[in-house]
Specification:
It contains nine helices and 16 strands. The chain has helices at 50-72, 180-193, 216-223, 232-240, 264-272, 276-294, 343-346, 355-366, 382-392, and strands spanning 2-10, 14-18, 24-28, 41-45, 81-86, 91-95, 105-112, 115-119, 128-131, 139-148, 151-154, 158-161, 172-175, 196-197, 207-209, 228-229.
Length: 393
């Protein structure tokens, strides 16, 4: 296609061309002949290059396929969080290697109970972290958030509960320089309390046990601020049945700083199986009150309480007949004095006193203050009490 255009204006970079219907077209001056000036007429041929267009389309399609295969088929994966070990005040968390696919890592953050706990550096390929300063016997919720150039990915929430003071399963011991007998004793004590032994110092090592401060593992424990204690610390935990302080068990610590108690296990054993003397004392204390309640004293049995003095003899009436025995005393702290009845009402054969009245008056008399210091008299039967009154009459 041939097009004739009139040059209207020529600048250093752009030339203005006019069509036959007076339309303006800006055209690069570098593509015009050097001798072109204003008013010159140029012919421009325009044609479509099919071969070049086809080649360009093929190249673009290949580029799109390459981008899709590299960035579109794989994406970063969410991290998987696990708990490696838990103690009374700390938790060790671990996760698999972060899979970023073709994305770039922006950050990896740890969250505790919904709040950000800190950033985890990924330049050294860290796959575990230790969270300290936790409360004893408390539940915590942890999760990781991975931020990449392809988006944000979160792990599932992990619920971890710290141990009680009596739970020793979270202790992880790394042994150092120890004599052979102490090493065997340490292995037995660790197995009995349910703890673990690892040969190398790791992030979940809670205590480094040795008798001499030397060696590569000893230096590494010091760099990681792991308590370095003697084997007696494990024995103290076993004896007390709980975590004990490490202050008195350092290599150069004074043994007098160790708080040696009776031990929880020994206390429970003593409570479950008391000594023979204590068992006999407890049985006697239970038996004596039951005998006192079930077997009250009878007139025929000797009583530890003092019997009351004999009742005063009644005065003879005007007609010569004897008065009967006085009525039983009222149930009060001290017996009240009974006034004699008139002669007409008291005439008749004297009646024998009731057994219950004698027993009741005996018990009331024994409760009078001061009577307990006197020596107890021999008990009398109701018949003897009645005859005694007749003799006085």
């Amino acid at each position: 296609m041939l097009i004739s255009l009139t040059v209207g204006k020529v600048d250093a970079g752009v030339a203005v061309l006019l069509t036959e219907d007076k339309r303006l077209i800006e055209f690069p001056s570098i593509l015009l002949p050097p001798s072109i000036t204003s008013g010159s007429i140029v012919d421009i041929t325009v044609s479509r290059n099919q071969s070049s267009e086809t080649a360009s389309q093929k190249a673009f399609a290949s580029l799109q396929s390459s981008i899709l295969g590299t960035y579109g088929l794989s994406s970063p994966k969410a991290p998987v969080l696990r708990c490696r070990n838990a103690t009374q005040t700390s938790v060790v968390l671990e996760w698999d290697k972060i899979d970023l696919a073709t994305a770039d890592l922006r950050s990896l953050s740890l969250y505790r109970n919904g709040a950000k706990a800190g950033l985890i550096p990924q330049d050294k390929g860290i796959q575990a972290t230790k969270v300290s300063g936790l409360a004893v016997d408390t539940e915590y919720t942890f999760h990781l958030i991975l931020r990449t150039s392809a988006g944000q990915y979160s792990s599932e929430k992990l619920i971890v509960k710290t141990h009680k003071m009596t739970d020793l399963s979270g202790i992880t011991v790394t042994p150092g320089v120890l004599p052979a007998p102490l090493r065997e004793s340490l292995n037995g004590a660790v197995e009995r309390i349910g703890a673990k032994i690892v040969e190398n110092v790791r992030i979940d090592t809670t205590h480094f046990v040795c008798t001499e401060g030397r060696g590569r593992e000893w230096e590494k424990a010091g760099e990681m601020n792991i308590p370095i204690v003697r084997p007696e610390w494990v024995e103290g935990c076993e004896r007390e049945g709980r975590i004990v302080g490490v202050r008195g068990y350092y290599l150069n610590a004074d043994p007098r700083l160790r708080q040696v108690g009776q031990g929880v296990g020994m206390q429970q054993q003593q409570q479950q199986s008391p000594r023979p003397q204590q068992r006999e004392r407890m049985e006697s204390q239970r038996t004596v009150p039951m005998q006192q309640q079930q077997a009250p004293p009878t007139p025929s049995q000797p009583s530890s309480k003092t019997l009351p003095p004999p009742s005063p003899s009644p005065r003879p009436s005007s007609n010569g007949s004897d008065k009967g025995p006085p009525p039983p005393l009222p149930e009060k702290d001290t017996p009240s004095k009974q006034e004699p009845l008139s002669g007409e009402e008291d005439e008749g054969v004297p009646e024998k006193p009731d057994d219950s009245a004698v027993t009741s008056s005996t018990q009331e008399k024994a409760d009078v203050p001061g009577s307990g210091d006197e020596q107890a008299e021999e008990p009398r039967t109701p018949a003897e009490s009645a005859s005694f009154s007749e003799v006085q009459l």
